[in-house]
Design a protein that fits this description.
Layout lengths: L7 H11 L8 E7 L5 H11 L2 E7 L2 H9 L7 E2 L6 H6 L13 H5 L17 E13 L24 E3 L3 H11 L9 H15 L4 E2 L4 H7 L4 E5 H9 L12 E4 L5 E10 L6 H11 L2 H11 L6 H6 L2 H7 L3 H4 L2 E3 L5 H16 L4
Parallel strand pairs: 1-2, 1-3, 5-6, 5-7, 9-10
Antiparallel strand pairs: 3-9, 4-7, 4-8, 4-9
Helix pairs in contact: 1-2, 6-7, 7-15
């Protein structure tokens, strides 16, 4: 498989842009997760549209939302997880989409992913990529007889100080809920309280809350189990030949049998997008089969673009596209009403304020 590499054609296109007055190119700004768009795709888009894509990154949906609420502007495309989109629409942070300007989206959307998104009408959202949350782990550090595909592993005393949990309110409280057999979006105060009790047990066993560095820490052995995302883990397992990173057969990824979260990250158009026309072109460009294939070979997670998925190397497709039976164990992170969100915020404050023992 050719993965996470920059083709000669893209490099040539990039150099051509440099020597044809690139300083006068219009800019289109994207706010997204780190390592989430293939450089080759960005450079190809730049060359095709005589523009410059500028990428800024965030580490959590909460960081994204806080920045926008504090007045952060200048973005054209923003890439939150699905559950945040209704709130952003309600607060006027995004605008309704004109699908006539991006015909590839509805034409090429893969219906296999319809059950994993919140709004199949795509009123405000263009599904970008899906991630599944579980455990990135070092295979030889899991105690004999211990089931790594269970939330109960977070209580194991032999792993104390060698575990990290995502620094994410919905992922962590959702994990506590699923570990107890509840919905990831429960609004029942008693169930939320029980989830907090469970997470506090885990809290006494973990090194820290972390949404970013767990990728390198598991690789280095500083952490043995990192609560994290499928795309991050797959990137480490496959390796990056160009960056000198070898494949890692000693690292695995497990989805808890009690339930795991499904989070689609979406492309939305900022209400005050300075360059909306380029934003529409970019979203349409991502849904082109060839471009999406290149993008998936870089991010190592599925874009829901049918012609691209069908064209993937079979080994890669099996690695990143979950089978129907596994998907049934997953729960889509859904939006919360204001009253329930307040319960979650108070629960999160209690979790974060409690000292680890």
């Amino acid at each position: 498989m050719k993965l996470r590499t920059l083709s000669l054609s893209a490099l040539a296109a990039s150099l051509l842009a440099v020597f044809t007055g690139c300083e006068n190119r219009p800019e289109m700004h994207i706010y997204t997760w780190s390592d989430y768009i293939a450089p080759e795709v960005i450079e190809g888009f730049d060359a095709a549209n005589s523009c410059k894509v500028v990428v800024d990154t965030f580490e959590s949906n909460e960081q994204l939302y806080a920045k926008l609420k504090a007045g952060g502007t200048g973005y054209d495309i923003i890439m939150p997880s699905s559950y945040l989109v209704p709130l952003m629409a309600k607060e006027g942070l995004v605008q309704e989409l004109d699908h006539a300007k991006m015909p590839n989206v509805k034409k090429n959307f893969d219906p296999r992913f319809a059950t994993q998104i919140l709004d199949p009408s795509f009123k405000y959202n263009v599904p970008y990529a899906v991630t599944y949350t579980g455990f990135m782990y070092l295979k030889d550090k899991i105690p004999a007889g211990v089931d790594v595909a269970s939330w109960k592993i977070l209580e194991n005393a032999e792993l104390k100080g060698k575990i990290t949990l995502l620094d994410d309110i919905r992922e962590v409280i959702g994990a506590g809920l699923m570990a107890n057999g509840y919905s990831i979006a429960s609004s029942n105060p008693e169930e939320i309280a029980k989830a907090v009790e469970t997470v506090l047990v885990w809290r006494s066993n973990i090194r820290k809350f972390d949404a970013e560095s767990y990728k390198t820490e598991v690789s280095s052995g500083a952490t043995w189990i990192g609560h994290g995302y499928s795309t991050d883990t797959t990137q480490v397992i496959v390796g990056d030949e160009e960056a000198g990173a070898d494949p890692r057969s000693d690292i695995g990824f497990a989805l808890p049998k009690e339930g795991f979260s499904i989070a689609f990250d979406e492309m939305v158009l900022a209400k005050d997008a300075p360059n909306a026309e380029l934003a529409y072109k970019f979203m349409d460009y991502i849904y082109d089969g060839e471009n999406a294939k290149v993008n998936m070979e870089y991010i190592l997670g599925p874009n829901p673009v049918k012609p691209a998925i069908d064209a993937l190397d079979e080994e890669l497709r099996q690695l990143i596209v979950l089978d129907d039976e596994t998907i049934k164990r997953g729960q889509v992170i859904a939006p919360l009403d204001d009253a329930t969100l307040e319960l979650y915020n108070k629960a999160w404050d209690k979790i974060k304020a409690t000292d680890a023992k």
